[in-house]
Amino acid sequence: MRTFLKLVRWPNLLIVAFTMILMRYAVIEPVIGKITVSLAGSAGELTPLSLKFPWYDFLILVIATVSLTAGGYVINDYFDIRTDIINRGEVIVGTKVPRRQAMLWHNFLNVTGVACGFYISWKAGYFWMGILFLIVSGLLYFYSASYKRQFLIGNLVVAVLTALVPLLVVFYEWPALYRYYAVNALSSPDLSIIFYWVGAFALFAFITTLTREIIKDIEDFEGDAAYGRNTVPVVTGILTARIIAVALTAITIIMLFLVWKLFLNDKITLIYITVAVAIPLILVIRHLVTGPGKNNIRSASRLMKIAQCTGVLYSVAVKLILYFNLV
């Protein structure tokens, strides 16, 4: 069991699950709670909106997403045996887990994820949305088999799929909200605000994941170059790849404060993003600028992951700000 959990990167799976839970209960729920409508038969009394996608269906959505993510990690290790030996000195697939067993796990996890995806899509009233989970399954397979060997393609695929995690919560909550309040409210509420909020988290996830993928490619330069992979540092050189990563990190910092200034402008958010997100990102830049040594690159990758986690955890601050009316 310990080997299997290591194979599927269980800490990353927890992050995926908690990201979806936080998007639903720490962002969408308090945001729509600030919107009021007059329900039919309420004599004009205003009622705040509440979540309408059943929690048990939401749980299945989380299981579908986590299953596909786990399957992606398994197939990635399946195809990366040779490069991982050079880059990390050890592998799981082919040693602790036979290749055939790894492929069986991959198939089981993907079938589970796709089946759950079609089920909750059917429950949401949009069965065709299950195709999205099928596409994700295919992208994760072809990413490991081919895309990650192509210049920038693999990095973009991972970044897009990471950004999709918070967006999935909105994709399934919004139809349930619309159907309920379109029928039961005297006038349909404007629900676009939840797309703006969750979309901001998705954009942050996209750009930080893209940056971290490039940093990881710098770290894995030796193995990738040995087996002819056209990653960003292999094609452009390590120095240029570091400059790209620094530029993306700087853009992320600028975007954080720009969004705060234009849309939020409260002290709690300013303090949070400065201390918990911007400072780790500045340290990422420092390690990238210092030099291409493996310790610097590894530290930059870890700090970027910390910034990603604290970025997601800002959702807790959102809930507290809205609940206590601190804006």
Main sheet summary: 2 strands, antiparallel
* Low confidence ranges: none
What's the mean pLDDT score?
A: 94
Structural Rg: 21 Å
Q: Classify the helix fraction into a percent range.
A: over 70%
Strand content: under 5%
Order of helices and strands: HHEEHHHHHHHHHHH
**Number of H- or I-type helical stretches:** 13
Secondary structure class reads mainly alpha
The outline comes out as globular
**Number of E strands:** 2
Question: Distance between the terminal alpha carbons, to the nearest Å?
Answer: 47 Å
Short description:
This protein is mostly helical.
Describe, in plain words, how this protein is organized in 3D:
By secondary structure, the protein is mostly helical. The chain has one domain. Helix content is 78%, strand content 2%. The chain has 13 helices and 2 strands. Strands 1-2 form a two-stranded antiparallel ribbon. Helix 2 (10-32) packs parallel to helix 7 and helix 12 (267-290) packs antiparallel against helix 13 (294-323). The radius of gyration is 21 Å and the shape is globular. The model has no long low-confidence stretch (mean pLDDT 94).
Question: Key features?
Answer:
327 residues, two-stranded antiparallel ribbon, 13 helices, mainly alpha
Tell me the layout of helices and strands.
Blueprint: H1 2-7, H2 10-32, E1 36-38, E2 46-48, H3 55-79, H4 81-87, H5 99-124, H6 130-145, H7 153-184, H8 192-219, H9 221-226, H10 232-236, H11 238-264, H12 267-290, H13 294-323
Antiparallel strand pairs: 1-2
